[in-house]
Write a structure and sequence with these properties.
Helix 1 packs antiparallel against helix 2, helix 1 crosses helix 4 and helix 2 crosses helix 3. By secondary structure, this protein is mainly α.
Amino acid sequence: MVIVAVDLLALVAFVLAGMRSHHEGTLVEIFLRNAVPLLGTWVIVSVALSTYRRPGFATLLRTWIVAVPIALVIRSLWVGSPSEIAPFLTFLAVGLSFTLLFLAIGRGLARLVAARLGTARRRSA
């Protein structure tokens, strides 16, 4: 269950980082219009693909390559931007790249913390 939280927090961090380039609307509006499609789609796709039954890099990649493009299309339809194909493809490339980066960092940090906790427990035993 921890890995689910790690992935969702990584996606929230991605949204928060991206909010710096959006200035129209309140912070809550900007956050919701970007986070709801991404987190909602991620949860639905991860359930459909059984992502967290056997968490690993392969299941992460499968979920990422399905969920993120769908979420970005939903977000673009909801917000109406970007509406042209060339800017959307750039938006998609950036979204795919940075969500994967944030997810990989989150998973890496989780693995590092788990290893450190395991080492600390072995020393105290």
